[in-house]
Predict the 3D structure of the following.
Amino acid sequence: MGRIALHNIRKAYGAVEVLKGIDLSINEGELVVFVGPSGCGKSTLLRMISGLDRPTGGTIEIDGQDVTRRSAADRGLAMVFQSYALYPHMTVWQNMAFGLQNTRMPKAEIAERIADAARLLEIEPLLDRRPGQLSGGQRQRVAIGRAIVRRPTAFLLDEPLSNLDAELRVSMRAELTALHSRLGATMIHVTHDQVEAMTMADRIVVLRAGRVEQVDTPLNLYNVPNNLFVAGFIGAPGMNLWPATPETKGSFLLEGGTKLELPHLDLAGPVTFGLRPQHLRLDENGPLTAKVTLVEALGAESVVHAELEGGVRLLAVLPGQPDLALRSQIRFAFDPAALHVFDAQGQRVKTG
Amino acid sequence: MKKTVTAFTLGLSLLASTAMAGDVRMMWYSDGVEGEVMKDLLARFHAQNPDINVILDEVAYKVVQEQLQIQLEAGSGPDIARVTNIKTLAPHWLNLTPYLSDPDYWRTNFGAYADWMREDGSDAITGFMTQLTLTGGFANKTLFEQAGVAMPGAGATWDDWVNASAEVAKSQGTAAAFAIDRSGHRISGPNASYGANYIAADGMPAPMDAGSKAFAEKLVGWVADGKMLKDTWVAASGSTYRAAADDFINAAIPFYYSGSWQIANLSSKIGTGFDWVAIGSPCGTVACSGLAGGAALVAVKYTKNPEDVAKVMEFLGSEEIVKEFSERTLFLPAHAGVVTKGGLKWDTKDPNVGAALDKFVSAATEVAPAAAALPSWKWASAYYGALVNRISQVMAGELTLDDAYTKIDSDIAEQVAAAK
Amino acid sequence: MKPLASILGAVIAAPLGWIAGLAEAPLRLWQRLTGKGGMIAFFLLPNMAIFGVFVLFPLIINIVYSTTSGSALFLSDRDFVGLGQYERLLRCDDYTNTLTCQEDQFWTAVKNTAVFVVVQVGLLISIATATALILNREIMGRSFWRAMFFFPVLLSPVVVGLIWRWILDRNGALNAALVGVGLDPVNWLLERGWAFAATIGITIWAHLGFYALILLAGLQAIPRDLYEAAEMDGTPPGRVFWRITLPLLMPNLLVVIVLSLIRAVQVFDEAYVLTGGGPGTATLYLTQYIYEVGFASLLKNPGLASAASILMGGVLIVLTLVQLGLSNRNEKKGKQK
Amino acid sequence: MTRAWAFLSRRRAGSNWDWTDIVTFVWLGAGLFIVFGPALWLVLSSLKSPAQLSEFPPTLMPYEARSVIVAGYENPLPLYKVTDDAGTRTLAEVRRVGTVAQMVDPADPGTIQKINIANRTPERDIGFSWSNYTDPFLKFDFLNYTKNSVFVTTMATLITLLTNSMAAFALSKYEFRGRGFVIVLIVATLMIPLSVILVPLYSIISGVGLINSLWGVILPTVATPTGVFLLRQYMLTIPYELLEAARMDHASEWQIYWRIVLPLTAPALAVLAIFSVVWRWNDFLWPLIVLSRQEVYTLQVGLNAYAGELNVQWHYLLAMTVMTMVPVVLVFIFLQRFITAGIAGSGLK
């Protein structure tokens, strides 16, 4: 229970196409995260699945059944809204019971389900309160509780953590993941925060401008990004991306003038090199010479901002607390195998 | 949409209360105690005719003036109504003749006023006057005595009265010398005394003549020199009616020109405060005329049970009931039999009342022909309205008299044109 | 007070809830059958039907009326005259002198109403703003004072007119008080200026609380730290008012201005009961003119009244649309997403 | 006392008195007088006898003449204070002839004294003419009028709240073709006064047979666009996500309206309810036109019946005016919290 399949989903508001043909299949029990910059269509896609909006084209299947024309209530899904959308005039208990009462569920079962959910989420003392009397985190739990009691085939979570403060967000993230493994239910989680996506997801769907850019596990996305967009979007701090042109075989000129000798690469035409900041190390003989502009010492590691020749920016994450003077010239080396290469269209180039 | 509206309407009509057969609805307004008296009389009628249920709807005078006409035009309204605007609404009245057991009784006793309440040229019997009124003056005898001013005697002119009152006012420090109700009807008797005639040879309104202008000029002059109480006329616009009775009752004016209907009111409110007398109408250049009028009880032709209506009317129009009604309400009766027999026992202890009523009865003989024609004249209301409206604008300093005359003529012409 | 209100609420809500529960099943079926469109129709129809029959339809008939003449009240008995009534209303020989107009009292009413609107709205807004500023201070019993100014709003216009006529009459309480302190009584309702002022005064008296509350709501929405910042800058109070309070109060102020303008154009009940349009025609306002011409006088002219009312209605609709535009602008400004 | 004064004069930041404080106290004090003075005057006047009502100068309190039973006279005689050459004394009046009153000393009933009426003033006590209040209930059917008024007010308010909130819900929470047009229509007619459509409305009401029916009074008023406008403005502030949550919760559209939106609109509904009660209770012109049968009179119309062609029975009119004010005053006392908070909070714009 809980397989969701999307076939060529399109959505247009007038002439503006927001979703441009999305195919996706989500497995039972999976926690899938939709991630992408704002305006990429991730929330729209979620609303298509929920049934709150209808797609202009394509079909949605849940457990093999076509539900495209079915109303939201009849899809057996539950949703947690960004603002939680708790009914302000009802107590926590009533909020959780409302949906169940609407399906004419026996009272005893309602009470039992709410009690279970309340225990699970540790909100038992709050059942008689109204949303206005709860803190942000508590409201978050109640919103999840309201979804849990429905025993849905899948949970849809629309940026549920974005209204929490940083600390709470981290702990709720962990709790949600734990909850997922305990319930074993399918979950679709929408966020614009790639850290959230990385830490929580079984699989991540990266969306941009109404298209799916890549669907994969978090680590695969990190290690093997399919294109420039995914490469730049996933990972913090972001990947160094340097446009370059080949001079001769195995020799490349970076924008700004730095020369790189990469004998194992035989490429024609302009490319973009990608290198994660973690893969740079200090080396007096390294091929990259850069001027330090800023050092953010975080204790365990330091983030070094530097400029290559011609002002091209370089970001490196170095272990420990290296003693680097501002405006000093330092040199970096890297393992050529860690280098990502993208062609002029931004697609990944296989490098063996 | 139309269907919806119809269904909707149908539903609503079920909710609306509907009149039962055998019901006779009477729309009635009161100035004093006449509502209670009527209630009493109708209870007696019901005891004699248990199958006829008369429902008395006591309304404000405004309702009779404003809403009744619309109801009548819609073909609805009460079965019987007490109205003052009798002539204008005459097309809506029911001819009772076929339903009356003795039409000749009505012709004999109410015939004198029958023309007031039927269309020109008709010989229908539509109802009777519940009250006959005559405009006339009242004087505060106590104030005159205290001031040592003699009240002008018989034949005294308007100027005599106003000047004498002014002397009283000066000596006693009252607000003004005299007041006249803000009403075109009230000044039409005096106008006639100065020779005014509103009716042209063809029966249509004539332009303002010298008679009307003469009295209008006097009125404006009296307001200007403070002899006439400014409040009544100047304080409102349009053809709004305003009475100055309270000022007379409060002894703020020694002389007040209104009419016979004030007697009960004055008696109950003045009590023993001072002595007052009715003086009839002061004289103009050609007469000493007041203006007759009154309220009529008429049957409405849209009634569903005219026989019952006729029975009610016959009961109320019978000689002994008319007499009792008049005695208890202190109204002048319009019933020829009652008037000729006389001997009404006015239901009051106030010595001022009997004398005043007697004075009005005798003053009725002095009504000038031009004034006597007005109550049965179709366009009287138009004339009255224009007079009040414009003369009060002159008093307020908004118009000159000459402008007012022009405006009065054009106002009346427009009203005639608008009414086709 | 709160428990009482909630008990009252429960007593009223319980049976209503039961009825609403009964409606649930058939409505769910209706929703299944007709979808969203059917539900929209269901929600809109009761109100729009009543609105259509009792507001819109009469408005349309009124336009037809204005093109007919005669004293008959029912359309079928009336003669079509096209724009004749408008021509009669608007024609003057000399537009600088209302006396030369065919309907001189219409023009008098227009002129009176115009002056009334300008003076009354100006005064009302200033006094309401001042009152709101005062009520926004930290004074003891603030909720009492707030409610106090609101009290007259609850009275019927007829009662308001009656009360004040009773007071301003030549023999009224005010003159008694003046005589009592040895001053000469004034004939308030007979002096043109005083009578005019009285109609303005009592309409302000009757409406002040309503507008003051709207403005107070606006004042309370102004963040406190703005005033604290101004105090840190040593801004003088007058400047604080003109540069902080007034601009931030503007949305509410606009609402109040437009609402009070519309109400002022319609002035009738209170003034009619108080002065009856006098002295002379000094306080004859447009609505009274319409009422008298079309309804109150013995010889009614509904066509002329309709024409006048449509001219006035046009002005009112322009004013309301201005308000719609203004409040829409505010709405857009404050819209989320 | 000093503490009370200190509390009263407590001001922001505890700084010194300045002119704004003086303005505040003057304005509030004047307001107290101007607002409640007239109402109080009305109440006091309503307890005066007809004769006393037309007196000038009017007295603040209602008085009634003091009278005394004097041996040898059947009826009680009114007492006067007489001041003349013989000094000041209290005498009872037997009768008056012109400017001369025949009076007796109650202690010496045998001797008639002749007194010029200018030299005497009536002896009066504070006394209330309660008959101004009781008569209308005995002689006129004021109880029935009250019942009709209550019926009109309740039904009109309930229907107003229901239909207006339903329409406001549709106009604020659904997108559909013609919505903008409906809204403009409603706003455009928002401020059309009754007098503008008086005549055609009357012919419609008469056409559907609702003359002299309380429904003829109720229906035209419940359609006023004001309520729709006010409620819609408020509903616009209810987040759309709440409705979606309810839809996910299997709620039907009716349930969303009834269980979610309506409870959340409570403040605005309260304001509308209060206004509707006050407006309908105070309605005058329209009921006056529609109702001309006594059994369907509302209070305001019944009140008007005291105005005759020639005379107005002020004593009844004033007393019944006070009676009709009672519910309004109750609304004021019990709900003033809601009124002030509701208007401030309901975004009444």
